[in-house]
Write a structure and sequence with these properties.
2 domains, alpha/beta, 8 strands, globular
Length: 318
C-alpha cells in the first residue's frame, strides 16, 4: 500500500546521501522545487525530483494570503512542513526563517522541525520580523549572534544527519565581501551547507563558489527575484550542490486559478476548458483514493451496520 497515511522516515539520511553524492560527482545537483502545501509537494515528487523545498514565501501566501514578512509563527511553519513531509517519500528541506528568536528558540525550532519529519532547515541572519530575501528593507543581526544560533541548531539536532543550512542576507545590506565573511563564520560554527542569499550577478555567484571550494553551497533560483537566471550547467560548473526553485509552483498555481475563474466569470461555467484539466478520476487517483479504498477493504469489519457498505473500484457496494 502506497497511500501516504503515515510519515516516512529517514529523510535526513537520504538528503545527506544526496549531498554526499553531489560532492563526489561534480555533475550532480540536488534540485528541489518549492512547495507551499502538500499537494504541490506531491506534484514535485511525481515529476521525479530528488527533494522538495518548503518555501516560506509560498507558505505565507498559501496559509495567510499575505507576503513573506515574518507573519507566520514557528509552530505554523513547522506544522506546514510536517504536513508536506507526511505526504511525500522524498526529503524535505524547509525554510525556518530566523530560527524564531535567540539560540534557546533555535533549539526548540530544530526539535519541532525534526519532529515534523523534515530532512533539513535553513536559518537566516535577518533581524526579526524578517522579509523575503529578495525584498527591500532587510536588516541583519550581528555575525557573532548568528554564529551562536547556528551552533545551537547543530548541537540541538537529535539526528546527526539532519542538515543545518546557514543563510546570510548580508549581501543586500553590507555587500558581498561581508556576506562571504559571515558565511565563513557560520561554517566554522558547524553549518553543513551555506546559502548566500540574493547575489545579483553570475560574477557574484562565482565569487561565492571560489570562496568556499570545499563547502556545499545552496543557490536560490528565485523566480523573478534579484538574482539573474543562471543555467544548471553553469551552477554545476561553479560547484553549487543544492538549487531551489522556491516560487515557480506558486506562481503557476496563481496563473491557473486566475484563468479558470476568469472563464467562469465570462462564460458562466468552466465547461469549455475542462479538457485542459485533469479529470475528476485522474485527480482522485493521483491523491491516493485507490489506496484509501484498499485500506478500507483490508480493515473492513465482517459484520457491517446497514448503510456502511464499502464501494469497490467500480462503485459497486461490497
Amino acid at each position: 500500500m502506497t497511500a501516504r497515511l503515515t510519515r516516512s522516515t529517514g529523510g535526513p539520511a537520504r538528503l545527506r546521501a544526496l549531498l554526499d553524492s553531489a560532492l563526489l560527482d561534480s555533475g550532480r545537483l540536488v534540485v528541489a522545487p518549492g512547495a507551499f502545501d502538500p499537494l504541490a509537494a506531491r506534484l514535485v515528487e511525481e515529476a521525479g525530483f530528488p527533494a522538495v523545498y518548503m518555501t516560506g514565501f509560498g507558505a505565507s501566501a498559501a496559509l495567510l494570503g499575505r507576503p513573506d514578512v515574518g507573519l507566520l509563527t514557528m509552530t505554523e511553519m513547522a506544522d506546514n512542513a510536517g504536513r508536506i513531509a507526511a505526504c511525500v517519500d522524498i526529503p524535505v528541506i524547509a525554510d525556518a526563517d530566523t530560527g524564531y528568536g535567540n539560540p534557546l528558540n533555535v533549539i526548540r525550532t530544530v526539535g519541532a522541525y525534526e519532529a515534523a519529519g523534515v530532512a533539513g532547515i535553513h536559518i537566516e541572519d535577518q533581524v526579526a520580523p524578517k522579509k523575503c530575501g529578495h525584498m527591500e528593507g532587510k536588516q541583519v543581526i550581528a555575525p557573532d549572534e548568528m554564529a551562536q544560533k547556528v551552533r545551537a541548531a547543530v548541537e540541538a539536532r537529535s539526528d546527526p544527519d539532519f542538515v543545518v543550512i546557514a543563510r546570510t542576507d548580508a549581501r543586500a545590506v553590507e555587500g558581498l565581501d561581508r556576506a562571504i565573511e559571515r558565511a565563513r563564520l557560520y561554517r566554522d560554527a558547524g553549518a553543513d551547507v551555506l546559502f548566500i542569499e540574493a547575489v545579483v550577478s553570475d560574477a557574484e555567484a562565482a565569487a561565492v563558489s571560489a570562496a568556499f571550494p570545499d563547502v556545499p553551497l545552496l543557490f536560490n533560483w528565485a523566480e523573478g527575484g534579484k538574482t539573474p537566471p543562471i543555467s544548471l550547467d553553469r551552477l554545476r560548473e561553479l560547484g553549487y550542490r543544492i538549487v531551489i526553485f522556491p516560487i515557480g509552483t506558486l506562481l503557476a498555481a496563481t496563473a491557473a486559478i486566475r484563468g479558470i475563474l476568469q472563464e467562469i466569470a465570462t462564460a458562466g461555467t468552466p465547461a469549455a476548458v475542462l479538457s485542459e484539466l485533469p479529470s475528476f478520476g485522474e485527480f482522485t487517483e493521483f491523491i491516493g483514493l485507490p489506496q484509501v479504498r484498499e485500506v478500507e477493504q483490508r480493515y473492513a469489519a465482517t459484520d457491517q451496520a446497514p448503510g456502511t457498505e464499502l464501494e469497490d473500484e467500480n462503485g459497486s457496494y461490497i
